[in-house]
Amino acid sequence: MIMSSNNVESNIRPDADRELVDIADYVCDYEVTSEKALDGARNNLMDSLACLLMALEFPEAAKHLGPLVPGTVVPNGARVPGTQFQLDPVKAASDIGTLVRWLDFNDTWLAAEWGHPSDNWGAVLALGDYLSRKAISDGEQPMNMEMLMRHMVKAHEIQGVLALENSYNRVGLDHVVLVKVASAAVAAVMLNLDKEQVIDALSHAWVDGQSLRTYRHTPNTGSRKSWAAGDASARAVRLAMMVAKGEMGMPSVLTAPTWGFYDVLFDGEQFRFQRPYGSYVMEHILYKISFPAEFHAQTAVECALTLHPQVVDLLDQIERVELTTQEPAIRIISKQGPLHNPADRDHCLQYMVAIGLIFGELTAEHYEDDVAENPQIDRLRELMVVREDPRYSKEYYDPDKRSIANAVQIFFKDGGSTHKVEVAYPMGHPRRRSEGIPVLEKKFYDALHRRFPHPQARKIYDLCLDADRLKITSVDEFMDLFVV
Q: What is the pLDDT of residue 8?
């Protein structure tokens, strides 16, 4: 007897999800005309390379670099700046992305979801270098740096717009999913894939197993958070290259009932969008240019540095330290109890403020074990009271303000106190751009001179400050400047 059922699933292949089509239309058809965004991409490149070069000084970062199989030779391989490595573009994307992110010193985007759009430089630089070298070997014109910066504007935009109204962390997913999606879209275009293939690459990025935020939060905070973005950018390049070889996609990867991203990983909710894709994100990106600290704490550290001269000789007289902050900072980086490693410390609001109060500065070295053994740090942490100011939280989410406010006030055992120091916008905020860019350029200049002889460092620095000359420089020529 033949049985029938009304629950048989239809096998009619649907149209691609609108969200995928919109991204594909953007990366394939949108022309970046904003000079503000293009100049922002140049600044972003300098800032990201500065982070990369400084990270090379840390053995825990350097151990991730190089070919998976030692001695591997890759024709037309992509260079990893600051090293002698020339790798396949997938591993090079991993290495570059890991180094840019390692010190928690690269750019930031704060919205319903936060993240670091410059993480996408891993995919864009590695693939751009490889494709440029391959073009030369085939007798064709290589990609130039202007093309690369236009791609990076789009990578920033995709990651940032997807983050504006959609919180991935609230369902336990890490923001590097957005690095994978943005890099996959841009990588597909760099590989000259058509719009349908871009959609296919995007579908693979969304259907991939996504990283949990476990490694960013107590009690499991660890070094994976420093290489997760490099891993995501490498995976994006790999997926785009698979599609270039004919791998099929999944058109309803987001909306498929039961099995799609929305039902499986997003509590059945669909993405919401505040604005169309353009060049908004690169124009409004946030920079960490004063010190390496999780961005929700940047202004708190500024407050601590302001208070340092008043309290450095009175640390033993402190009775209470009041930290006033926004809700996301409390949720992400407010920690009590032992901190187990540098990755744990650079995501602890109280630790960063304590360092600022004690030393009057905050560098990557302050997260290392030898500094963390100072008993004054944990003693101050124990005296800290963290509270939310609802106004700070409201203005954090306000698209016209996007403040990241913090305030610090010190109370002493004799009943006295400092004044309450409040900073709403950190140095790297768009509202302080004219003040911040010279600091960004110095950050780049100093990082170059820590890695290269002066003539080599100066040559790179002068090129990057000359926007017109940088635009016409081929990607392979640019990357060759960074060989040690």
A: 55
